[in-house]
């Protein structure tokens, strides 16, 4: 059975548990890049999660009533001339067979078919407020149903946010997703190794970015999962640095935050290493602090732990390291309680990872808050999250001179397992000795 069909059945079960209804998921539109070309097409993640269908101008409709359900794909019809220019279209019949839908209809028939499907259904399941144009279209369909009230036809009386249901489903990965993410992680790790081997003083950041992109694509990745960050020297202190045009200098560190997307699933790796192939004493001191913080966070990433626990574990190591090397003064508890450490470490230690690089899913437990607020989510097998502590030391008069303009982040992708977690990006070296040996080679 295709994983997409299994997911549609699971969604239908949830819908029936709430009385049934009609769910609608649109894919993303094509977006013009300039006068006569579009950006490379990438489907909507929610739509693709339910369908696996790669073409634009498509929608999934799921009808769930009683003990039965029907899945319908709306997609473009075959078109000989457009296929000459733009490539093959599945067409409704082939798409139905290939992607396991009960029915497939032309996308152009949506406005005729949806009022019929919504008539006398108890609820609508839809990504409410996600797009004004789509919202207006759904409102027209509901209006067409309400216009039949005197004929005894009723419109859905309830509306549910489809994303909330799918977020919970997507948070725990199935075997198909895990296998894809493992492969994406392997490709990205190989790209980081390639980048380390290519780095030398005098190169530009964009030359190293090109090495990453080459390795992604030659291994079958369709896209980078996000804009690659290739940040040398002080640029590494900019968390979302995008310039990628500076020249690499001897004695600097290079921070690379880059990962590929494979078949709709992201990877996310950061490595920081010396342009010259050898860490200086101060660089190594800060790097070892970050690496130890990551180890502590990985140890805390296990089933039954709260999402915040890896972050708290990393913060304690980072804060103590900042005190030990003179970046901060005071006691460990005082530095944490006052958030003084945030001057040099200002982001969380991880985020969900999946179809989106910052994947969907609440970080707090679902349900109403208690007097103390909502508790952090409990980690469970099948969840995937990043583990990415860092230290970013911008130059300032009160900062010890050896540490100024050093930015370090080490990031890996962790799959929560029954006994702990599996680091699926382990093929990218992170120990100092391993990095230096690789670059010497």
Write the SSE topology:
Layout: H1 3-17, E1 21-26, E2 32-34, E3 37-38, H2 45-51, E4 59-65, E5 68-75, H3 80-86, H4 91-99, E6 103-106, H5 110-118, E7 123-126, H6 132-146, E8 158-161, H7 162-171, H8 175-198, H9 205-218, E9 223-224, E10 229-232, E11 253-258, E12 260-262, E13 265-266, E14 269-274, H10 281-299, H11 308-324, H12 332-337, E15 384-387, E16 390-393, E17 406-409, E18 412-416, E19 421-423, H13 432-440
Parallel strand pairs: 1-7, 5-6, 7-8
Antiparallel strand pairs: 1-4, 2-3, 4-5, 9-12, 10-11, 11-14, 12-13, 15-18, 16-17, 18-19
Instruction: Write down the Rg.
Output: 25 Å
- CATH homologous superfamily placement of the largest domain: Creatinase/methionine aminopeptidase superfamily
The counted number of beta strands is 19
CATH architecture of the largest domain: Alpha-Beta Complex
Q: Which sheet architecture does the biggest sheet show?
A: 6 strands, mixed
| Number of continuous helical runs | 13
Q: In total, how many domains does the architecture comprise? A: 2
In words, what does this structure look like?
The protein has 441 residues and is an alpha+beta fold. The protein folds into two domains: 3-170, 3-Layer(aba) Sandwich (Creatine Amidinohydrolase, Chain A, domain 1); 172-440, Alpha-Beta Complex (Creatine Amidinohydrolase), CATH 3.90.230.10. It is built from 13 helices and 19 strands. It has helices at residues 3-17, 45-51, 80-86, 91-99, 110-118, 132-146, 162-171, 175-198, 205-218, 281-299, 308-324, 332-337, 432-440, and strands at residues 21-26, 32-34, 37-38, 59-65, 68-75, 103-106, 123-126, 158-161, 223-224, 229-232, 253-258, 260-262, 265-266, 269-274, 384-387, 390-393, 406-409, 412-416, 421-423. Strand 12 and strand 13 (265-266) form a beta hairpin. Helix 10 (281-299) runs antiparallel to helix 11 (308-324). The two termini are 47 Å apart.
């Amino acid at each position: 059975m295709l994983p997409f069909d299994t997911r549609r059945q699971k969604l239908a079960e949830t819908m029936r548990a709430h009385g049934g209804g009609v769910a609608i998921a649109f894919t993303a539109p094509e977006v013009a890049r300039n006068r006569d070309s579009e950006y490379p097409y990438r489907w909507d993640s929610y739509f693709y999660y339910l369908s696996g269908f790669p073409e634009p101008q498509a929608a999934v409709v799921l009808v769930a009533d009683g003990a039965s359900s029907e899945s319908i794909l709306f997609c473009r019809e075959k078109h000989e001339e457009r296929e000459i220019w733009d490539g093959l279209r599945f067409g409704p019949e082939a798409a139905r067979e290939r992607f396991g839908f009960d029915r497939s209809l032309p996308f152009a028939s949506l406005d005729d078919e949806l009022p019929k499907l919504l008539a006398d259904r108890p609820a609508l399941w839809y990504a409410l407020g996600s797009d004004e144009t789509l919202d207006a279209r759904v409102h027209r369909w509901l209006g067409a149903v309400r216009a039949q009230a005197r004929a005894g036809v009723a419109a859905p009386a309830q509306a549910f946010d489809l994303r909330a249901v799918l977020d919970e489903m997507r948070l725990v990965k199935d075997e198909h997703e895990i296998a894809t993410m493992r492969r994406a992680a392997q490709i990205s790790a190989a790209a980081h190794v390639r980048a380390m081997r290519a780095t030398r003083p005098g190169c530009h950041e964009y030359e190293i970015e090109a090495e990453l992109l080459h390795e992604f694509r030659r291994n079958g990745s369709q896209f980078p999962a996000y804009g690659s960050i290739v940040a040398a020297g002080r640029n590494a202190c900019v968390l979302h640095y995008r310039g990628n045009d500076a020249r690499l200098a001897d004695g600097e560190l290079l921070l690379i935050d880059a990962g590929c997307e494979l078949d709709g699933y992201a990877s996310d790796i950061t490595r920081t290493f010396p342009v010259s192939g050898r860490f200086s004493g101060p660089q190594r001191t800060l790097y070892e602090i970050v690496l130890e913080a990551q180890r502590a966070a990985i140890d805390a990433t296990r089933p039954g732990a709260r999402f915040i626990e890896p972050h708290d574990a990393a913060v304690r190591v980072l804060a103590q390291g900042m005190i030990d090397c003179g970046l901060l003064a005071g006691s460990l508890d005082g530095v944490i309680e006052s958030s003084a450490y945030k001057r040099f470490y200002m982001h969380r230690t991880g985020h969900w990872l999946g179809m989106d690089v910052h994947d969907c899913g609440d970080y707090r437990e679902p349900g109403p808050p208690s007097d103390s607020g909502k508790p952090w989510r409990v980690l469970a097998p099948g969840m995937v999250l990043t583990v990415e502590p860092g230290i970013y030391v911008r130059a300032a008069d009160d900062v010890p001179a050896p540490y100024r303009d050093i930015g370090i982040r080490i990031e890996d992708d962790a799959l929560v397992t029954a006994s702990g977690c599996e680091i699926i990006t382990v093929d990218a070296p992170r120990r100092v000795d391993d990095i230096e040996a690789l670059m010497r080679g």
